Amino acid sequence: MTGLLPAPGVPGLLNGSIPPGVYRLPPTESVPLAVSLAAESDWRAAVLRLKGVTGKAAFLDQSASDLEFPAWFGKNWDALADCLMDLSWWRNEGKARGYLLLTEDWDPFSKAAPKDARTAEAILTEAVDYWADREAPLAVLLG
Protein backbone atom coordinates (compact mmCIF):
# COMPACT_ATOMS: atom_id res chain seq x y z
CA MET A 1 0.00 0.00 0.00
CA THR A 2 1.20 3.46 -0.87
CA GLY A 3 2.11 5.76 1.98
CA LEU A 4 0.78 9.20 2.77
CA LEU A 5 2.68 12.11 1.24
CA PRO A 6 4.93 13.30 4.08
CA ALA A 7 5.19 16.89 5.32
CA PRO A 8 5.59 19.46 3.87
CA GLY A 9 3.17 17.84 1.41
CA VAL A 10 2.65 18.96 -2.16
CA PRO A 11 5.01 21.98 -1.87
CA GLY A 12 7.81 19.64 -0.75
CA LEU A 13 7.18 17.30 -3.66
CA LEU A 14 7.27 20.18 -6.12
CA ASN A 15 10.41 21.81 -4.70
CA GLY A 16 12.31 18.53 -4.52
CA SER A 17 12.57 18.14 -0.74
CA ILE A 18 10.35 15.04 -1.09
CA PRO A 19 11.44 12.61 -3.82
CA PRO A 20 9.02 11.83 -6.64
CA GLY A 21 6.90 8.78 -5.89
CA VAL A 22 3.39 7.42 -5.69
CA TYR A 23 1.82 8.84 -2.56
CA ARG A 24 -1.60 9.20 -1.01
CA LEU A 25 -2.76 12.81 -0.99
CA PRO A 26 -3.08 14.00 2.62
CA PRO A 27 -6.65 14.83 3.66
CA THR A 28 -5.47 18.36 4.48
CA GLU A 29 -4.64 18.95 0.80
CA SER A 30 -6.99 18.91 -2.17
CA VAL A 31 -6.60 18.01 -5.82
CA PRO A 32 -7.44 21.57 -6.98
CA LEU A 33 -4.83 22.99 -4.58
CA ALA A 34 -2.21 20.53 -5.84
CA VAL A 35 -2.99 21.45 -9.47
CA SER A 36 -2.66 25.14 -8.63
CA LEU A 37 0.64 24.64 -6.77
CA ALA A 38 1.97 22.55 -9.66
CA ALA A 39 1.20 25.31 -12.15
CA GLU A 40 2.94 27.88 -9.94
CA SER A 41 6.00 25.60 -9.78
CA ASP A 42 6.17 24.97 -13.56
CA TRP A 43 5.02 21.38 -13.18
CA ARG A 44 2.42 20.05 -15.58
CA ALA A 45 -0.55 18.48 -13.75
CA ALA A 46 -3.34 16.19 -14.90
CA VAL A 47 -6.29 14.81 -12.99
CA LEU A 48 -7.69 11.32 -13.41
CA ARG A 49 -11.29 11.32 -12.17
CA LEU A 50 -12.30 7.85 -10.99
CA LYS A 51 -15.80 8.53 -9.67
CA GLY A 52 -17.96 5.55 -10.63
CA VAL A 53 -15.00 3.59 -12.05
CA THR A 54 -15.30 -0.01 -10.91
CA GLY A 55 -12.94 -2.02 -13.10
CA LYS A 56 -10.12 -2.22 -15.59
CA ALA A 57 -12.02 -1.24 -18.74
CA ALA A 58 -13.56 1.84 -17.14
CA PHE A 59 -10.19 2.79 -15.57
CA LEU A 60 -8.45 2.60 -18.94
CA ASP A 61 -11.28 4.49 -20.70
CA GLN A 62 -11.19 7.21 -18.04
CA SER A 63 -7.39 7.42 -18.26
CA ALA A 64 -7.56 7.84 -22.04
CA SER A 65 -10.19 10.56 -21.71
CA ASP A 66 -8.93 12.55 -18.72
CA LEU A 67 -5.23 12.32 -19.59
CA GLU A 68 -5.85 12.87 -23.30
CA PHE A 69 -3.77 9.90 -24.34
CA PRO A 70 -2.74 9.69 -28.00
CA ALA A 71 -4.83 7.79 -30.54
CA TRP A 72 -2.40 4.86 -30.41
CA PHE A 73 -3.38 4.07 -26.79
CA GLY A 74 -4.56 0.44 -26.92
CA LYS A 75 -6.72 0.44 -23.76
CA ASN A 76 -4.83 -2.33 -21.98
CA TRP A 77 -2.32 -2.39 -19.12
CA ASP A 78 0.70 -2.55 -21.46
CA ALA A 79 -0.53 0.48 -23.37
CA LEU A 80 -1.04 2.37 -20.10
CA ALA A 81 2.56 1.61 -19.16
CA ASP A 82 3.71 2.70 -22.62
CA CYS A 83 1.91 6.05 -22.33
CA LEU A 84 3.36 6.67 -18.87
CA MET A 85 6.91 5.79 -19.99
CA ASP A 86 6.61 8.00 -23.09
CA LEU A 87 5.22 11.33 -21.97
CA SER A 88 5.53 12.89 -25.44
CA TRP A 89 1.73 13.19 -25.46
CA TRP A 90 2.00 15.36 -22.33
CA ARG A 91 5.15 17.29 -23.21
CA ASN A 92 3.89 18.97 -26.37
CA GLU A 93 3.42 22.32 -24.62
CA GLY A 94 7.10 23.00 -23.95
CA LYS A 95 9.37 22.27 -21.06
CA ALA A 96 8.12 21.48 -17.57
CA ARG A 97 10.05 20.97 -14.32
CA GLY A 98 8.02 17.84 -13.65
CA TYR A 99 4.75 16.02 -14.19
CA LEU A 100 2.12 15.48 -11.52
CA LEU A 101 -0.65 12.95 -12.00
CA LEU A 102 -3.46 13.20 -9.47
CA THR A 103 -6.36 10.85 -9.01
CA GLU A 104 -9.72 11.59 -7.50
CA ASP A 105 -11.78 8.85 -5.83
CA TRP A 106 -8.93 6.33 -5.69
CA ASP A 107 -10.33 4.65 -2.56
CA PRO A 108 -13.76 3.82 -4.04
CA PHE A 109 -12.05 2.48 -7.18
CA SER A 110 -9.65 0.43 -5.05
CA LYS A 111 -12.53 -1.03 -3.02
CA ALA A 112 -14.60 -1.83 -6.11
CA ALA A 113 -11.71 -3.39 -8.05
CA PRO A 114 -8.82 -4.22 -5.70
CA LYS A 115 -6.90 -6.35 -8.20
CA ASP A 116 -7.19 -3.72 -10.94
CA ALA A 117 -6.19 -0.97 -8.49
CA ARG A 118 -3.09 -2.94 -7.48
CA THR A 119 -2.16 -3.43 -11.13
CA ALA A 120 -2.70 0.25 -11.92
CA GLU A 121 -0.67 1.28 -8.87
CA ALA A 122 2.17 -1.02 -9.90
CA ILE A 123 2.22 0.55 -13.38
CA LEU A 124 2.16 4.05 -11.89
CA THR A 125 5.06 3.11 -9.60
CA GLU A 126 7.09 1.74 -12.52
CA ALA A 127 6.51 4.95 -14.45
CA VAL A 128 7.53 7.12 -11.49
CA ASP A 129 10.69 5.04 -11.06
CA TYR A 130 11.47 5.37 -14.77
CA TRP A 131 11.21 9.18 -14.68
CA ALA A 132 12.89 9.64 -11.27
CA ASP A 133 16.40 10.23 -12.62
CA ARG A 134 15.37 12.32 -15.58
CA GLU A 135 15.31 16.08 -15.94
CA ALA A 136 11.53 16.28 -15.43
CA PRO A 137 10.28 13.63 -12.97
CA LEU A 138 6.81 12.15 -12.69
CA ALA A 139 4.98 12.02 -9.36
CA VAL A 140 1.56 10.53 -8.60
CA LEU A 141 -0.84 11.50 -5.84
CA LEU A 142 -3.73 9.16 -5.11
CA GLY A 143 -6.64 11.18 -3.81
TrEMBL record:
This is Barstar family protein. It comes from the Bacteria. Residues 44-142 form the Barstar (barnase inhibitor) domain. It comes from Streptomyces gamaensis. Belongs to the barstar family. SUPFAM superfamilies: Barstar-related.
